[in-house]
Amino acid sequence: FGLRAIVDCQLTRSDSQKLMGLRGLHVLIFKLVGAFFYVICSGVRDDDVGRVASPCIQIEQNDYVGTIDGRRIKKVSWRCNVDNLQLCRNKAEVKTKGFYESSGKNSGNLMKDTWTPFDSLFGEGITVRRFNKLPRECCVSKWQDVSELVYDKRMDLARFGSYSVGRNYTPIELVAVSRYLGGGFWNNDEDAGELWSQIQQAGCNGVEPRAGLQSEGSGTESVTVGQVNEQIAQHGEPSPPAKLFGMNPDRPRDACCDKYGEFW
């Protein structure tokens, strides 16, 4: 009777007549039990099999801004979808950052062509005097809370931000976006694969583009400092004048940073 009840959960007119007697009550009970198991079993559909949770990072925008100072610039927007402050801040909020292809001159050959985050450009026209980069981490032990290898690579990843300042994102979010963009460190370092594996084990399961996302631009167009800054500006980020005049809105308040003078 169980199989029949699962296949046919509809109460017929004859069934309602049977309710007048004990046998009818039994029929109703059997059908209700069958319907219950049918609902439970049908809750898992074929298209649910293999379905995974939302990615740690969902890319919302990935466009070329252009080329300046011999480097290609990208504007990337993303959401972070995990409840883990070591990996993600401000869950589900859309964040935007500029990324440039590193020349490797300051960061070393290992980082050459790595897509690296930055706040803004300082200069005029097509002349770049400085890339205003993210503050360095002064409490490096916080990287160790994510993984040992992330901590070991702290010098290579020094320009991916800091936990000790009040930004809307963690360094891990920026590392994940850089890996999604590919190249550079992710091809050059023999530990890059293991580094990403440990980040995944910490809870950041992957990076995926939103459905239908298409990148715009080729990265070959020449752009000015003003055009780049306008494209990558995000509300709440430090402005270039604040840095120029010695103001430091990113100055950490952690005790382990008290004797640390170089945040930029």
Architecture blueprint of SSEs:
Layout: H1 2-7, H2 13-18, H3 22-42, E1 57-68, E2 71-80, E3 95-101, E4 115-124, E5 127-133, H4 141-144, H5 148-152, H6 171-181, H7 185-188, H8 192-202, E6 207-209, H9 225-232, H10 240-244
Parallel strand pairs: 1-6
Antiparallel strand pairs: 1-2, 2-3, 3-4, 4-5
Q: Count of helical segments?
A: 10
**CA(first)-CA(last) distance:** 74 Å
Q: Taking all residues together, what is the mean pLDDT?
A: 79
Strand content: 15-25%
Low-confidence stretches: 1-20, 35-51, 241-247, 260-264
Q: What structural category arises from helix and sheet content?
A: alpha+beta
Query: Can you summarize the main beta sheet?
Result: 6 strands, mixed
| Large-scale geometry | globular
Index terms:
10 helices; 31% helix; globular; 264 residues; single chain; alpha+beta; disordered C terminus
